[in-house]
Sequence to fold (114 residues):
Amino acid sequence: MHHTLVRKQYPDLVAAAERLSLDEALDGFLQVYLPQAVYANPTMLARDLKITTAVLYTAFERLVTMGKVVPMPLTGKISGYVWYEAAAEITKKEKGNPHGTEATTSKSAGFHLA
Fold:
């Protein structure tokens, strides 16, 4: 963070953030961002974050391995990612059950854990 006001107002948080590795920072950011997002397009998100797509794909794959996100097809060869609970919710709605009283899995909806 380089905004002066943030540095002055929250010096402890800025210092803690600066001690994080890029991998730790991405894992923390994605775990806060993804549950609120409809989906994430790694190519666009990497551009917005000013990091390489390879680094971001690696972060997504760590979360896939942990069972926190699932890959989803976007367009053509581009894959996106969705938070696991959101994928389960999408599955329930696609099955015609918007209230989620019926158990379904992401695998049955075409989502798969790598």
User: Anything to note?
Assistant: The beta strands are 69-73, 79-83.
